[in-house]
Amino acid sequence: MTKPPTDLAEELRAQVKDRTAYLGVIDRLNKASVDKHWEAYADIPWDDPDFQVDKNDPRWILPPVDRLGETEWYRSQPPEIQAQIGLFRVATAMKIGLQFENLLKRGLLNYAYRLPNGRPEFRYVYHETTEECHHGMMFQEFVNRSTLPIRGMPRALSAIAQITPLIPLINTELFFVFVLGGEDPIDYVQRKTLKGGHIKHPLEETIMRIHIAEEARHISFARHYLKHRVPGMPRLRRRILGLATPAILGVMARIMLSPPGPMVRHFNIPADVVREAYKSEAAQDEIRASVGKIRDLMAELGVVTPVNRRIWQAFGIWDEPRGKKAAAAA
Ligand SMILES: [Fe+2]
Ligand SMILES: [Fe+2]
């Protein structure tokens, strides 16, 4: 198996100045999808003895730098419970991830369904859908092997989320904001965890590396699509995009980074421990940081206005765009 690289996003984050450059990006992404892709049941050694999932394995124990892992309550639990909580959290993130990607795939297919012949986006969207199918399979296989009672999104949210595959029929740009709203926070957390060297289990590491490598392409496509399309959007659609974006991002980042309710109930985690770990200022800063890239992009595209900035602030995800911050510091 080829080792998935993690710096692909950087390589592909070229500025799109005109349509030729945009088409060039799609070409490179298409080629990269053909050259480097991973299959859930061909490239992951599920049967390797070292890759087996045992819920009591100490390798699942959260590191002391983790916000839940550092609490007094967590450290005083028996090692098996600490391990099970660690695994519960990883598996829940995968379950929510696969549900989000299920919605995403349906939306991508709705978008592709209506594309006229000859449109370059068609092929890339099919590559992306294929990759997401493998992500869904590897995530679900991991969840099954955890043998824990993992649930995904809260039921009410899951019901509302069923409308998202229909967004591309009304506003494709808004759909790609939804795509980034799910992919960016996951990518942020995965890169941070991997970089911090906190992943001890080889199965989790392999899944994460594959995911980061392929998501870099998906994120790159969504960003370039928005850069290419938003400047030419009619004013009203653009205004709708500006109002809906912070609401979508605020909800998505919270789902991705909040404590799973079933985990709290399953292990009877006291409310004050949950508050200490997830409602602290550091936790709120992390949510804000996880949407930083897309917030900067929206500001760069002129979508952020004084009116919709209040919505960003209300969801606790506003921060000055990077460019402005650098200028202020200079
Ligand atoms: Fe994915
Ligand atoms: Fe993706």
Describe the structure.
By secondary structure, the chain is mostly helical. It has a single domain (19-318), classed as Ribonucleotide Reductase, subunit A (Orthogonal Bundle). The chain is 68% helix and 0% strand. The protein is built from 16 helices and no strands. The radius of gyration is 20 Å and the shape is globular. The structure holds fe (ii) ion (FE2) (2 copies). One fe (ii) ion is lined by residues 132, 183, 215, 218. The site of one fe (ii) ion (FE2) has 4 residues, from helix 9.
Per DSSP, the total helix count is 16
Oligomer: single chain
How many discrete domains? 1
Strand content: under 5%
H/E topology pattern: HHHHHHHHHHHHHHHH
Q: Provide the structure class.
A: mainly alpha
